[in-house]
Amino acid sequence: MITPLIAHVQSDRLIWKVERHRKYSIKSAYRLSLEELIDSSHLHRLGSWSGIWKLKVPPKVHNLIWRMCRGCLPTRVRLQNKGVHCPTQCVSCASGHEDLAHLLFDCPFATQVWHMTDLWSHITVYSSTTSVVEAIFWLVDTLCGEQKQLFVVVLWSLWKHRNLKVWEDVTEGCVTVVEQAGVMVTEWKLANIPGG
């Protein structure tokens, strides 16, 4: 004879208390393990991360912006700090040290690019007292939709320009960098038209 534990229960069911909808997912289990089982507080960085992931741009741009804001892009100064022997001067202007601030905002080449995009007035918010990461988060939060899109794809295009020069010795002009960014935005919009 079977004795029920609770008389009013008709059927058993599994409930995953971590989610509001009570359904198990690997994502929620992963999040639970990070929050409860592993001390990951040293990995948390302040900033509007959701603003970056909500941008209407290709995934490769999301990934690059995330890497910029996490401080893990291999600029020449960062490589030197990690023990890699390489020159530290900027490949675009051959002066200064190629850190993220110089590469994206302070380099004369980058400055010309920003002037051509009509975003320079917004970019000047960045100063030597503000970190590049704070500037990126602030600009992603405050620019309007299309400006925000253009801003992050220009960051991607500047990084691509730098890599072409370093790895293939190909020199692109400012116009090419801006045009590539514009084409990327246009192609992304066309590819993501509902019903298209």
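The record above closes out task 2.4. Task 2.5 opens with a second protein, given below.
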Amino acid sequence: MVKIGCRAGFLLLALNALSATTADGADKSRYSLVNPTPKSLLRDLTTDRPDLTESPFTVDAGRIQVKTSAFGYARSRADSDGVESDVFEYATTNIRVGITHNTEINVVLEPYGVVRSEFSEVVASRRDEGIGSLFIRGKVNLFGNDAFQDPGDMAAALLPFIVLPTDSNNGISAEDVEGGLIVPFAVVLPRDFGLGVNVAVTAIKDDDGSGYHVETLASLALSYEWNDRFGTYYEIATVLGTDDPRGDILVLGTGFTYAVNDNFQLDGGINFGVTSASDRVNPFVGLTRRF
């Protein structure tokens, strides 16, 4: 047991040292929240959007990155009660703060959302609106943070999170505390392609309120850089183990990113649901700014 623990410790130390070194050998481990990474050593802007697949890269120490879904819309399929919904989200924002060279914290908040539900058996509708859930997240890069440019280069991270309700009665926020862990992985492919993979587990409150169940999310995103500014992606994502009687979720998506400069990016995309439990369509646009 002791030998195994020591070996694991040495491995983590080695990975930590590797993630602090840039491709040209510069050591960034001395930078922190109070000693920000200089502009000359900033890694390329990575935004964790617009695709569903999270990146394994963290914000440089002492830097702040704000990403916002300026507008999003989703049209659901009918549920077991025949109810279909239109969901609108406005300015859902993720504030990412670099703590060390390989760790960051995130605060995600949806300031305003609207759900308009239509009931098939009666000529009636319902409108819910208000503030959404508060997400507290952390990301720890394991390797590849600053050495991710040549085909075959890889990066991985751990991203635990917790979801906190803000108003459990408004139909927008989660009603109970939930949480989970995402494991992001990425690899550089030849000819300007890249591959991102996520595996995640989330503890979700049961619809009947009796307890929690575990849902598993898996996603894969293939990206292509057309030039230094413009990129596109194609994605497949699934959620397994839901307690929805319609079954599991499967989504296909595509979108683009456009880098205005090194610290500002615009993006947009659209997701299409494949299974009956998935939303029919989900278009969105957003932006990211690094400070």
